[in-house]
Amino acid sequence: MKYDKQLPQDTEPVIECRNLWKIFGDDSDRAMAAIISEGLNKENILKRFGCIVGVQDVSFSVSEGEIFCVMGLSGSGKSTLIRHLNRLVEPTAGEVWIEGENISTLSPTGLRDLRASKMGMVFQNMALMPHRTVRENVAFALEVRGYNRKKRFNIANNAIEIVELAGWGNRYPDELSGGMQQRVGLARAIAADPHFLLMDEPFSALDPLIRRQLQDQFLKLAKEMKKTTLFITHDLDEAIRIGDRIAIMREGMLVQVGTPEQIVMEPKDAYVADFVAGISKLHLVTAARIMESLTDYETRTGQSLNKSDLLTACPDDTLDRLAELSIDTDAPLMIEKDGTHVGIVTKKALIRGIQGRLNNVVGAE
Amino acid sequence: MDEKNTFSPLDPFQYVDLGIADWADGIKQWATANRGTIQPIKHFLNDSINSVENVLQAVPPTVMIILLTLLAWQLSGRRVAIIVCISLVALGLLDPGAWALAMTTLAIVLFSVAMCMVIGFPLGVLAAKSNRFEGAVRPVLDTMQTIPAFVYLVPVVMLVGIGNVSGVIVTIVFAVPPLIRLTSLGIRQVNQSVVEAARAFGASPSQIMIKVELPLAMPTIMAGVNQTIMLSLSMVVIASMIAVKGLGNEVLRAMGRLDAGKAIVGGLGIVILAVILDRITQGVTRSGRERGYRHWWQGGPVGLALTTIKSYWKRTKPNGESNRHKHTKLHKMKQEQDRE
To answer: Which CATH architecture has domain A287-360?
Structure first.
């Protein structure tokens, strides 16, 4: 679960985007110059140069092993953004650094090496090659790198087993269901054992039940393989389930970047707030956020607690767990960390927390 | 006389003569003047055509029927093989001389089609990759397909002289455009997301072309080859006007003598050749998967032969020392396939 995950914030970022701009159109360079010199906005750029601004001044970094979700509606530029990381799309301005290397400076061969050995990509529409069997599809990146048939098929078989498709290697993609096809897509991405996974709305085209299965499977895999992942989605639930951090994207800009809890509990503006309004807080909010200190509680209520009678929980326990604990008691919960009492969660605070009205959590009953 | 000298704005063209026909006639002089330079190429092509024809003529009809039927079976399935076999027999029965004439025509047509592929295929790929080239080549192809063959018949004869080589050149001019067009179209129609995926996994442009674009464009390209073959066949009568022998010449001569019977025999021979070539090439576009097997060597006469050999092998050497390893491995593979 998410609450016990430590973010590796102190490590060097392995993916870094610096002030990335992408403007589509024949006049993109002049449009870019106009943006810098005159500060034109999107509408004026379209009017004056007939250019469409896809990505505006996006900067972010991803640490090793992190799953970074980019969430946005269609047309927000998230698919364009992810294609900058392997230069399927060239930026109009700005830089992309992968493992300390500015990929704009790579030669065509260097770029192909990067794509074949370091990046595995999964596409929304699967994009499997219809004339190749599942095994040949999975082995594609290895074939491109010149592995011989036996070697690449061995590796591919392994990847096919990992996504639980053993025995389907000789089939063709059109003989598989949508969910299975996307598992082939995933196997193809991990077969070359890349450092990074680029996932462009991988589960969006699937029906809800299959989507959930694949999300679970992916989470399990991600835990085992610890690959740095950039995950694009238009589904906030999915972003929260999968992401260590989430970036909300709107009209080519990153509106907010943060952990799922930060996004849900502290939306930066009305747009994000709108998004998270319907999200259940049960599995996101932890006791640490709704507890009050022992002294506060005692001065507020004027009574001292009999500590040994109370049920205890950890600061990292979710609301779901706290609700489960306090279901049979009216007494508040004691929050304990490393053997010391760090706080109290009253029933009111718990209910307010579940409602998502955190401003009202602490206070008089 | 008086009328003719007065310029009339209602009919201005009557009084303007740019002399285009005279100017264009200069091509004739140019052609005759440059005759010498292309002689070596001409001889080379002529020898090639003749050797193709000699091979086809040397094979006895019965053997040829068997070979072509087997080929059709392998490439296009049993049904096509039966059609091809029946058509070939019918071709031989048309007239005692028909078979030899048909082989001559077949040699010219096959050679023309091979040349068309050598020329058309790279140009088609180029047209698919470059919008500018596509734009430039399109009107040229339109011209080649619509301009009457008689127009370029004369310059070609002036340059090359009568005979098979001129016949092939004239045929190529008419037959190559659909191959270029359909090759370009087929490559352009390949699903771009698949191409993008190939790029994302580090494929180079040439790898994308060979491993993704060409295989996926193949049905359309084969339709182009099929069209080229059909158009080549439709040129055989015109080509016979510049001394190309074969069924076309038969039709032409019959026409001169108002001999309807001979014309029909020659015409039917061309039609039967067309049916045979059409069925075989159309069948090639159907993948083996549609016919129920995965590799080309698993179907047709080759597949049959392999299965027979395999079962014979199993029966005679079930415990052969040297083959035990191979055998168990085969068996294991078979089991794996069955499971899958």
So the answer is: Roll (3.10)
What order do you get walking across the sheet with A67-72 strand by strand?
A: A119-122, A196-200, A228-233, A67-72, A245-250, A253-258
* B83 has pLDDT over 80: yes
**Residue of A112, A129, A172 lying closest to B212 (CB–CB):** A129
C-alpha distance from residue A246 to each of A60, A231, A254, A274 (Å): 11, 9, 10, 16
Regions of chain A short of the pLDDT cut 50: 1-8, 363-365
Q: Which of B194, B201, B216 lies at the smallest CB-CB distance from A116?
A: B201
Instruction: Please tell me the predicted confidence (pLDDT) of residue A349.
Output: 86
- Are A170 and B294 a contacting pair at CB < 8 A? yes
CATH 3.40.50.300 assigned to A2-10+63-88+103-276? yes
Task: Give the span between the Cα atoms of B295 and A360, in whole angstroms.
Answer: 70
The tokens of B315 are what?
Answer: 């029966």
Which tokens belong to A27? 């006049």
How far is C-alpha A310 from the chain's CA centre? 38
Give the pLDDT confidence of A286-324 residue by residue, as tens digits.
Answer: 888 888 888 888 888 887 777 777 888 888 888 888 888
- Kindly determine whether residue A171 and residue B194, on different chains, have CB atoms separated by under 8 Å: no
Report d(CA A189, CA A184) in Å as an integer: 9
Give residue B229's pLDDT band: very low, low, confident or very high (50, 70, 90): very high
Kindly list the structural domains of chain B, giving each domain's residue range(s) and its CATH number in brackets, ordered by start: 39-287 (1.10.3720.10), 298-339 (no CATH)
Predicted pLDDT at B146: 92
pLDDT over 90 at B273, yes or no: yes
- C-beta atoms of B200 and A129 within 8 A: no
Which of A82, A83, A90, A115 would best serve as a mutation to test chain B binding (most B beta carbons within 10 A)?
Answer: A115
Chain center to CA of A177: 26
Complex ipTM, two decimals?
Answer: 0.84
